[in-house]
Structure formats: C-alpha cells, structure tokens
Amino acid sequence: MRGRPDGGQKKRLITSVFVVAIFIGFLYAYYGSSNRGSSALEYGKSLRKLGSSYLGGEDDNDGKQDEASKFGDVEDDVVPKSFPVCDDRHSELIPCLDRNLIYQMRLKLDLSLMEHYERHCPPPERRFNCLIPPPSGYKVPIKWPKSRDEVWKANIPHTHLAHEKSDQNWMVVKGEKIIFPGGGTHFHYGADKYIASIANMLNFSNDNINNEGRLRTVLDVGCGVASFGAYLLSSDVITMSLAPNDVHQNQIQFALERGIPAYLGVLGTKRLPYPSRSFELAHCSRCRIDWLQRDGILLLELDRLLRPGGYFAYSSPEAYAQDEEDLRIWKEMSALVERMCWRIAAKRNQTVVWQKPLNNDCYMARAPGTLPPLCHSDDDPDAVYGVQMEACITPYSDHDQKARGSGLAPWPARLTAPSPRLADFGYSSEMFEKDTESWRNRVDSYWNLLSPKIQSNSLRNLMDMKAHLGSFAAALKEKDVWVMSVVPEDGPNTLKLIYDRGLIGSIHNWCEAYSTYPRTYDLLHAWTVFSDIEKRGCSGEDLLLEMDRILRPTGFVIIRDKQSVVDFVKKYLRALNWEAVATTADASSDSDKDGDEVVFIVQKKIWLTSESLRDTE
Known about the structure:
Rossmann fold; 28% helix; 17% strand; 18 helices
C-alpha cells in the first residue's frame, strides 16, 4: 500500500482537527465570555459550580441540598478564589426584572396588563453567577441629606429623563452631577408646595401633611424620581415610592441613589408585596394608569392597601379637564369609587382626594349585586407574594369595625406601641416590648463595632433581610437612615405589624433576587437568613452574590447566624472582594438548639473592571 493515497487516514486527520477546533472554540466561548472585563482586583480564574449553575450550565440539583447549601461541609478546595465578573453591559442587572430574559425564554405575557414589568426570575441554568461591575467612573455616593438634591452622573449615566422632563423640573444635568430641583409632572414649582396644598385641602393643622402624626405611611404610585417622597420626609412621613422598570427605567435607581425609600414594582396582575391596611395615603400624580380596566381591579388593590379612613390623592387631567374623553373617564371613575364607598374629601384645581370609609357600614348598605363585590371570607388580604389581584373589596376585620379605624397611636408613639394586630399571631404586648428592647441593645452593639469604620452620615439606605417585628428598624429611629424591612414569604407574615409601627418593608423570598438595582443599599442585616435558606435547599453562594449585587461599594453586611454560617461566609471573602470588620459571639442571644448566634461584620471593597478603568482614564 506504500505510495498509494490513504483516503481513510486523511479523513481521520480532518475529523480530528475539526473536533479539536470545536473543543477550543467551546472553551473560548465558555470561559472567555464569563471572564470578559475581569476585575482590576483579580485573584485568579478558578470557576466552580457551588449551588447553582453558571451561564449555560446544567442544574444537577436533584432535589437534595448541594455542597454550597451545607454550610458546615464546604471544603476550602471547592471555594473559588475569585468569581467571574459580569460583562459591563450587566452593570444594572436586575435578575427577576430582566427583559432580555423574557425575550430569550419566549414568555407569553400580556403587555396590556403590564405582565412584562412583573417579576420573572431566571431558572438556575440561566442565572448570572458573577459579580456585577460598577459603571465607568463610579464614585462613592454623595451623603444624605445633600444627596436628596444631587447625585454623581457617573453612578447613573442616564440623562434622557433630564431632557424628556425638562419642562417639569424632574432633574437637570450640571457638569459631573445630576441635580433634582424637586419638580414633578403636576408640581413643576416644587413638591413641598404641592404637599402643603394637599394638607390645606384636607384642613390638616398648620398645613402639615402628617396631620399631627396620624398620617405616617404613604404609597406613591408611578413616583418618577421620587421627589414627592423626598419632600415628605421632613414632615416625618415615610413613602414607599413605586415605579416599574419601564421607559423611564432608571427612575427608581435615581430615587435610591438620592437616599429615598423606593421599590421596583407595578400595578399589573399580582398584588403588590405589602399587606392590607398599610398606608394612610396613596398618591398618583399623572401616573398614566387606567384605573377603570378589569372592573377597577387596580383601584381595588389600592383599596386593599389603604387603612380605614385612608386617602387617595389623584392629580390628573381627568380631575379637571373638560374635553369629552376626560369627562367620560371622570364620570365612570366617580361612579366606581362611589360603589366602593369612597367619598370626595377635597377637590381643587387639578387634584381630587378621595377617602376610604372607616368601617363596613357602607358596604353592608349597598344594594344586592352591586359591583365590585366584597371578597370571599376565605380570601387572605395579607397573602401577597405571587398572588393574583382580585376585583373585590376587602372588608374590615371585627376589630376595625368596632374601633372605627385602625386603632393606631399617632407617630412617633406608634413605633413602640403594640399593634392591635399582634393578636393575629398570638403575640402579647410583653413579647413585643421584650423584642423591642432586645434589638435596641443589639443595634447599639452593632454601632459600637462599626464605629471605627463609619461617621454619622456614612449610612443611609439600610435593609433588614429578616425583619420579624421590625425592631431592628425601630432601634434606628434617632439615626438619619431608613430601613427596608423585609419579611420572608415562607414565615409568619408579620409585615403588617411593621407597617403598624410606622415603618416600611416588603415580602420576599431570598432564594430569588430582590427587586432593586445593583449598588442601592449601604448596609444589609442578615439575621439567620442563611440558616433559613439552607433548610429550603437554596444556595448560600447565590445569596452571597445577590447581597453583593445590591450592596454599595464600601457598604457593610451584618450577619447574625450560627458559627457554621459565619465560617462559610469567611471562605468567600476573597472571591467577593469583601473584608472582615468584626466578629463577636452573642452568648445572650435567644438562639436555638444549634448554638449561640455569632455576629460577623464585613465591608465591600470598591473596585472597577479593567474596561471601566480604561474608560475612566
């Protein structure tokens, strides 16, 4: 056979070359895309799956807890020396509100119902398990209260709202900063004057919107950059500023950068993540919501959230315009709210304020068959996480019916006064008072540990990841901070007790990403959160990456948990670019049989990707 062309050998050679080329291409695509824009603080390139799959990987969790969930069993040799850094395009990634994910998964959503702005979390195999990089030129945020009026443009490099809303004084670009004059769509001349005018319409004492402490919690729907909520703070009124990630997609990001309480959400098909009877006032300033759709279901969601005697302030053309379409909408909306037993408390110029009844008397007096109907007796108005809205009226409890109202003390007394709804959980006033005192001592201890690292204005946006009765937030009243008190959706739904204290928060499942932008909180407090998700078989590593996503550079994490959890977190400090600040045992804690709780405080380092550094230079 010598000298004869060997066709088979030639084919085998070509096939081998082809296979090798595909394999090299696969390695480049997998590792190259994962490590693009690698961190300036680069500790290595080890990449290992520890709890859920990386991009494009397979989820091999067959229902059992994996390595990362068993905190006491994670060996040093399986902990990555560094996490990959996400591409700079993902510097504003919100995993459960990612429109690219919706497109890629071909989800069939009804755009008219705003389903595309609701939460749709990625399955494990589609999670971005990488560190979210800050944008080019990122700076430590301006401190409160100065931040109310200005932020660094580099931190949120989006100026389209300044041009689009230039006639409404939303925001103005000035050099390296974005300035917020305090205007809005219906209050061009300042939110402070607009707020005072609403108080005057309602005959509140001294035109003060807090009504001598009786009005404390507010929901601002379609809030823009949250200037309404920003200017309510000086009146001791706290606002949950709510808006979707829509065409004005960075409005909530601006609000949080300013140090104003805010949340990404939409009135779509699911209940908002707040319990019934949470707010004294709801507000909509030209929020462009069709309140008449689906038998008034969105207005009925506001009704669920308002306290007895609560107000809805509505500033919109329908309230004053005289063209045919606006008159039609006003007529139909007036008829709807009348059937809901709301009454007009005040109407002036462009604004109308409706008031919800104090008890069930009006509901009981309606003619049989009147729509909207009362909700069924087995409907739980406080069940909200992933629960569909219902086009029905939530009647008051027997207690509220007898009390002709919520029975809450005025602010600030309500912060430490036991809520009438404590009885719903079988909690006593003594238990409430003990919890309040216990957390006051714990927070004092935290601040002593943090004192070498912080000044009086170092912290502004705080999150309590497992808030229980809200006593962590209550203990911070004298600090110039606000706290998002998060109640896990699988535990006692105590969020209504937190709102009854005059605080704010949301329901959440920590096996999923939170509805906020990256780099929005200065401090995260995690009390047994890791132990809780371990019991559910969720990944501790995923939770660490999520905490890193929402934590600002130079921000802090306080972990209060069992020793094995602290040991687990310590193994990831280098990979996360975190550094330990303090560790202390708490032998006095009311811990369970697993042993005494340990307090571990860490700080996130500030870093930029190599791409961002080049852009900055």
